[in-house]
Known about the structure:
Layout: E1 7-9, H1 12-20, E2 31-37, E3 40-43, E4 51-52, E5 58-59, E6 64-67, E7 72-77, E8 80-84, E9 88-95, E10 99-113, E11 121-125, E12 130-133, E13 137-143, E14 149-156, E15 159-163, E16 166-170, E17 174-179, E18 185-189, H2 196-209, H3 227-230, E19 231-236, E20 240-245, E21 258-263, E22 267-272, H4 279-282, E23 285-289, E24 292-296, E25 312-314
Parallel strand pairs: 10-11, 23-25
Antiparallel strand pairs: 1-25, 2-5, 2-7, 3-4, 3-6, 6-9, 7-8, 8-10, 9-10, 10-13, 11-12, 12-15, 13-14, 14-17, 15-16, 17-18, 19-20, 21-22, 23-24
Amino acid sequence: MMSTTKLVSVVLIAAAAPAFADAGDPPSRVARLNYESGSVSFRPGSADDWSPASPNYPLTIGDHLWADRDARAEMHIGSTAVRMDSETALSVLNLDDRTVQLSLTAGVIEVRLRALDEDQTFEVDTPNVAISLLRPGDYRIQADGDGATTSVAVWSGEAELTGGGSAFPVHPRQAARITGTDSITNEVVDLPPRDPFVRWSEDRDRREDQAQSVRYVPREMIGYEDLDAYGAWRNVPPYGWVWTPASAAVGWAPYRYGHWVWVSPWGWTWVDDAPWGFAPFHYGRWAYAGGAWVWVPGQVVARPVYAPALVAFVGGPRFG
């Protein structure tokens, strides 16, 4: 029998290391589909077939999402929320430590950009224009199915639209409609009404604004917004502030309920079944303290580094 203080290594890291050894370190951030309502489909860049989206599956370059009729979805990239309305097609063109580039080919998205460092860019491409979000703020982008019409509303922030060899600014409390492909026309229009999709997005913003877990983890840690509803924080020496799931099943332990998938460039990646199961399995580490498993997020840093799974967890009941 192993003692309760035995260090248990997760085999994932050793197994996955060769997958990106030649290409250098993989990006330190990913995207995550953290909410879906209705029929939302997912297609990884390495596959031709669509499947039902999984909330804790990490999204990266080449991945595609589709929100069907009467569906909605929310994707997080760090502290940024990208929300999809009904009949919206969105994909990830580029995603690394400094760049976010998304493709919106049809439908409507609302973007809540909480932070944008000087060395970072955030861009949304439609079939006829590239939209650069220049400042933190709230944005609405709509791509019509004809491939030749894009509408952009800047509730707050600042955007620049580039297409047809021209660039156009869109200032706070302004909206624009861009038509054409090779030769485009930019028209200043009224801000759209605050429809049910906008109000839903604002409700999601308020939920994140009120999250208590940001006292213990940074907003750039994907999945922080789920921790309040599914567990509690407490101070446990010598770990400091730790989080414990509230309704874990009898015999629950980390890495027991979920599955492994291969996600390039990280390699084997853990996808947990729990609705809160993103942050605690990709940042920090697990420990067994006071008769229960606790998640130790570690020191608060501005840009937490994503990992496909935790390197190790400490302690635990006796292992056989």
